[in-house]
Each structure stands twice: as C-alpha cells, then as structure tokens.
Design the sequence.
C-alpha cells in the first residue's frame, strides 16, 4: 500500500488525458464504423467486426492499422501503404462527420473532472495518437477547445504511442516537469507511452482494454466516475469514489517505491 507524503499533495500542476477510450468511447461504435464505411465506399470486401477490431487496436494509428491489415490480406507493402493513405483520408472525413452529428459522447465524469481541475488551477492537456482533423472537432463538441491548455495529436508528432513523443511534446508545450503531472490513459500502448515520458499514469479501462497489460499504471479503474462509485481493479481502494482532483493529487503524492 502506498504512503502519502503530505508535503507532496499540492504538487499536481497538470493532468494529461488520452482521447480514444479515455475521454470518449470512440473505438467500437465510432472509428470501427468509419473504417468499415471507407472500405465499402472503395468497393473493398473488408469489414472489421467487434472482436477483430479489438485485436487490430494493438497497433495505434488508423493509417498504419489499415496498411498492416491490407498486407495481411495479400497486398504488397507499397500498394498497402498507398491504399491505406487513401482509405484513411476517407475514414477521417467520415469519422469527423459522425462527430458533428453528436453521436460520440464523453465518458461519464470527463467534463466534470476537467472543469474541477481548471477551477483548482490545474492545467489540462490532451495527448492522443488520433488525427487532428477529427480530434479537434471532437474535443470542441464535447468540452470546448478552450478548456485545454495544450492539445497534441498524432498529426503533430513523428511517432505514435507507445512511443513517448506525444507526451514529451505536451510536457514541452506546458512547460512543466513530469513530476507535477498525472496522465490518464485507457490502454497498454497509452500507459507505456506516458510512463516512457516519465509520467505517473492511471488507467481507466473499457471493454477493449480491460485485459491488456497495464502494469505500468499506478492504478486501474473501470470508469472515471459512476454514481455509487467505480471498481478499482488495482491500486488505492480510495479510488472507488472515482477520479476527482483530490484523487489525482493523492496519486501524485503517493510513494510507490
Ligand atoms: C488511438 C489510436 C487511433 C484511433 C483511430 O490510440 O490508435 O489510431 O484508433 O484514430 P490512443 P486515427 O487512444 O492511444 O491515442 O484513425 O485518426 O488514427
Ligand atoms: Mg486510448
């Protein structure tokens, strides 16, 4: 059980959120549907069902995901890359259109947590592998872009999670040291990226990520917040009340050594 250092409880300067699966449940009924629409529109006989898409999520980045899949279906590497770029452009347009219909909703408690952090002077930022052309409209629709001090997307960085590039870029733009920051993630790739950037990370899982290796996270919850409390799959039992500003301060103050 971690001990809390009282002198460390006020160290929280910023919280960095992942988007897909963390701030919003986007994958199964959002991205997956848009990928399938793009395949169909291109006259390709590929459709990703719910379990298969879960396996494909092991690789971050929609364009890379398509390219690897096309190669597994017999396309040459060059052909797969070219077709993936085209399909991904169309998928991005389709997903952005879906976002504008209001079909993608925030995970319960996300908006309230962001508001509470800001009210206490804690900076809020986003570190995502997703493409800027849908990330920005989604964040704007769900929360308003103004509530984030920094947003870095997969379009802005050279390598995607589990590479730490996106987190390092957020830290640089925030101008804060990793020791004052907690990252909130949902997946193994995300946790790995945050930890590789020197951050303390809490995982909030969903159906696709519940059984992944999240050993780098200091705690694992099944939701950000829920009436009656959340399930603490690993970590401080106090987290059963959900992720609040106080809970994030405790996470940063705890001595896990
Ligand atoms: C998200 C991703 C993205 C999305 C689809 O990972 O890997 O590829 O699945 O978005 P994370 P794009 O939550 O770790 O950031 O099609 O725009 O890539
Ligand atoms: Mg994610």
Sequence:
């Amino acid at each position: 059980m971690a001990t809390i250092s009282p002198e460390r409880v006020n160290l929280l300067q910023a919280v960095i959120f992942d988007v897909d699966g963390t701030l919003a449940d986007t994958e199964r009924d959002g991205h997956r549907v848009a990928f399938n629409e793009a395949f169909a529109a291109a006259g390709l006989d590929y459709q990703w069902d719910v379990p298969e898409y879960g396996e494909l999520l092991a690789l971050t980045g929609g364009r890379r995901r398509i390219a690897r899949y096309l190669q597994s279906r017999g396309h040459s590497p060059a052909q797969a890359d070219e077709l993936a770029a085209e399909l991904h452009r169309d998928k991005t347009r389709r997903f952005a259109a879906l976002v504008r219909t209001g079909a993608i909703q925030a995970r319960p408690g996300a908006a309230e947590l962001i508001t509470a952090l800001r009210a206490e002077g804690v900076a809020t930022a986003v570190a995502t592998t997703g493409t800027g052309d849908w990330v920005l409209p989604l964040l704007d629709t769900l929360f308003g872009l103004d509530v984030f001090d920094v947003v870095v997307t997969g379009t802005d960085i050279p390598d995607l999670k589990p590479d730490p590039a996106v987190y390092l870029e957020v830290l640089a733009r925030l101008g804060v040291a990793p020791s004052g920051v907690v990252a909130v993630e949902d997946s193994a790739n995300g946790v790995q990226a945050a930890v590789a950037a020197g951050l303390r990370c809490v995982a909030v899982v969903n159906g696709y990520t519940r059984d992944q290796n999240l050993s780098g996270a200091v705690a694992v919850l099944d939701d950000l917040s829920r009436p009656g409390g959340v399930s603490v799959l690993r970590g401080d039992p106090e987290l059963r009340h959900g992720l609040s500003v106080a809970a994030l301060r405790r996470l940063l103050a705890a001595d896990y050594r």
Remarks:
- The chain has a mean pLDDT of 96.
- The longest strand covers residues 123-127.
- The two ends are 10 Å apart (CA to CA).
